């Protein structure tokens, strides 16, 4: 049965500590979240380059200081966490932390990323990933010991191509078939698919042999997985 990763934590409280806690409490083995850097070089959690959609504030994260971002609240009253806060949480619980880099980091930003990963003790549990191949390359050059992954959609990709970017592949669920997953596994990659939110997608992911599913619905996935395991056990002679 594929493991389950909470996509952005939870959709109700995306990229907040509350969202990460709720995903973990629902039984996720890991969480995925997004990172941008503030004007003063602090990595913070946000899917968007601006705070407009997710908070009651306005403006670009890159044009704001960390203190300014931290003073904001989401529409459900949650603060915007720093990456350090998020990784302290995941490391303490030994949760997989899929850290998605939105921009291509500058060398100082790479340094700040690696400093946070190392000082929080999260390195064994972190997978740094991005749609941006240059971002993944920047981290691999600076810290080849870290787990990294390309995040990929739309066009097919071979295991050989994906393995250039690390130890895993985070791929659109629509590209995962038994054949493609075998190819990715044969290249030594763990395979994560996103974003699968309903039983037909979960069943397909299980049938293809992926390692983990990113979902907005951790608790329903866990219930489906328990039921699927029970049915499999009942059917076994």
TrEMBL record:
Query: Which Gene3D superfamilies does its entry note?
Result: Phosphatidylinositol (PI) phosphodiesterase
Q: Its domain of life?
A: Bacteria
Q: Which InterPro entries match?
A: GP_PDE_dom, PLC-like_Pdiesterase_TIM-brl
BP terms from Gene Ontology: lipid metabolic process
Task: Give GO MF terms, alphabetically.
Answer: phosphoric diester hydrolase activity
In this chain the GP-PDE domain maps to: 2-225
Family matches, as PANTHER family? GLYCEROPHOSPHODIESTER PHOSPHODIESTERASE, CYTOPLASMIC (PTHR46211:SF1), GLYCEROPHOSPHORYL DIESTER PHOSPHODIESTERASE (PTHR46211)
The name of this protein is Glycerophosphodiester phosphodiesterase
């Amino acid at each position: 049965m594929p493991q389950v990763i909470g996509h952005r934590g939870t959709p109700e409280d995306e990229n907040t500590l509350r969202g990460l806690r709720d995903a973990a409490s629902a039984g996720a083995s890991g969480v995925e979240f997004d990172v941008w850097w503030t004007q003063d070089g602090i990595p913070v959690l946000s899917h968007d380059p601006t705070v407009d959609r997710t908070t009651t504030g306005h403006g670009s994260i890159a044009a704001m200081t960390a203190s300014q971002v931290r003073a904001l609240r989401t529409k459900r009253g949650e603060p915007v966490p720093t990456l350090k806060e998020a990784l302290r949480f995941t490391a303490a619980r030994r949760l997989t932390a899929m850290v998605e880099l939105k921009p291509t980091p500058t060398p100082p930003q790479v340094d700040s990323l690696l400093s946070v990963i190392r000082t929080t003790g999260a390195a064994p549990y972190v997978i740094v990933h991005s749609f941006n191949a240059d971002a993944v390359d920047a981290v691999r050059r600076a810290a080849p010991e870290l787990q990294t992954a390309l995040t990929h959609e739309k066009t097919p990709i071979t295991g050989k191509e994906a393995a250039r970017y690390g130890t895993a592949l985070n791929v659109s669920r629509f590209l995962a078939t038994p054949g493609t997953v075998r190819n990715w596994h044969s290249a030594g990659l763990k395979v994560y698919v996103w974003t699968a939110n309903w039983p037909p997608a979960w069943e397909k992911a299980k049938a293809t042999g992926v390692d983990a599913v990113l979902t907005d619905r951790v608790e329903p996935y866990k219930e489906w997985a328990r039921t699927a395991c029970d049915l499999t056990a009942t059917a076994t002679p």
